[in-house]
Design a protein that fits this description.
The chain is mainly α and about 170 residues long. The chain is about 85% helix and about 0% strand. It is elongated, with a radius of gyration of 20 Å.
Length: about 170
């Protein structure tokens, strides 16, 4: 009931349709199946779209931002916004242990985004590649940082979705 109350605030018509259809359900499993089919599938689609949008935006911004510290700030900002968005979609606020776990993943995403530039430089030195043009070197670092950040944000979004989803599938 608390989950339905939270979902009523953002999805009143969807929840009302579910409650009308669920009146005739006799078992808890039938009720949960109805909830899955009428409410959660639509929320999952909305959460998946938010995850993809956030990963693409975060990765794109990191790819064009010229400084590792700014990469970390962008990654942390996008990760925090993504967690809030997913919690809002499912009518939940991540709290307690789940918030700590999500914060740990957010910080890891930010650190990895900042460290990608250094890793690309080290890899180029180890392989013995010399970039003829500094611009192409920066583009490579930016692209690598953007891809890694997008991937980390996508994984973080899926993890947050798993934690915030009221019923596991």
């Amino acid at each position: 009931e608390p989950t339905l109350n939270n979902l009523r605030q953002g999805y009143s018509s969807r929840v009302a349709e579910f409650e009308e259809a669920a009146k005739n359900r006799e078992t808890a499993s039938d009720y949960l199946e109805q909830f899955e089919n009428m409410v959660l599938i639509q929320l999952d689609n909305e959460a998946n779209a938010a995850i993809k949008r956030s990963a693409l935006l975060g990765g794109s911004v990191v790819a064009i931002v010229p400084h590792p510290a700014l990469d970390a700030a962008v990654a942390l900002w996008r990760a925090t916004a993504l967690i809030r968005k997913i919690g809002k979609i499912y009518g939940l606020e991540p709290t307690g242990l789940s918030s700590l776990r999500l914060l740990k993943h957010s910080i890891a995403t930010a650190i990895i985004a900042a460290g990608t530039d250094v890793a690309v430089d080290l890899a180029a030195e180890q392989v013995g590649l010399e970039m003829a043009d500094q611009v192409s070197s920066n583009l490579g670092k930016g692209a690598a940082g953007g891809v890694v950040t997008a991937w980390r944000l996508y994984r973080l979004g899926n993890y947050a979705q798993k934690l915030c989803r009221p019923v596991t599938s």
